[in-house]
Amino acid sequence: MPDSRRNKLALLAVTALVDAMMMGLAQASPPARLAVIDKPTLDLSGKKRVGKASFYAQMFAGRKMADGKPMDPQHNNAASRTLPLGTTAKVTNLETGKSAFVTIQDRGPYVEGRIVDLSPSTAQKIGITPRQGVAKVEVAPLTVPLPDGGVKLGAAAEPRPVPQATSTRGALLARSDRSYRRFQPIAW
Questions:
Q1: What are phi and psi of 20, to 5 degrees?
Q2: CA distance 154 to 148
Q3: Which of 82, 96, 122, 176 could form a disulfide with 127 if both were Cys (CB 3.0 to 4.6 A apart)?
Q4: pLDDT, tens digit, 9 for 90 and up, residues 47-67
């Protein structure tokens, strides 16, 4: 094939690609993938964070997660690159205002800008549709397991007010586990 004909075909192919991109038929580039070997430091602060959430594809159902359990698309499991495994967190879709509690059981997502991968049922609960695929969320840890075996309360752990006694006959006693019981004073 002569060089001039090859150059014309190459120019025609580039022109067609540019036209397709201008009409929105072709994407410029897929989202940047993060290396699996990159290990960010674990976030033990318990602070809220805002970012994008996606959800597991059906092909991951039954596959072993980082904690060794199989991924169940019907449970409230999630993946985070920075929260410790076993963290319980409240995930709120900032577009719909809907929330769900999840347990971090896996590592990921490995796409730049995403902070959590949700199970399909959890994504549906908070309003992330398969067509949409990604939504802006707030992740607020409730409990964060610590390396020494302890547990730290996170941003989603709301302190309960201690009720005040209303009378001497039916006073409330607060126990350390925050459950309450009534007691009757002894009549002399």
A1: -65, -40
A2: 17
A3: 96
A4: 999 999 999 988 899 999 999
148 shares a domain with 121 = yes
Residues 77 and 116 reside in one and the same domain: yes
**Which two tokens mark 183?**
């007691």
Q: Confirm whether 160 is domain-assigned.
A: no
Nearest partner of 34 among 86, 145, 112, judged by Cα = 112
- 64: helix, coil or strand? strand
The predicted-structure confidence for 156-166, as pLDDT tens digits, reads as follows 887 666 565 55
pTM over 0.70: no
- The terminus-to-terminus CA distance of the chain in angstroms comes to 113
For residue 145, tell me if it sits in a domain.
Answer: yes
Check residue 59 and report its DSSP letter.
G
Q: Report how far residue 34's alpha carbon sits from residue 94's, in angstroms, rounded to the nearest whole number.
A: 25
Q: Residue 137 pairs with which residues in a beta bridge?
A: 51, 93
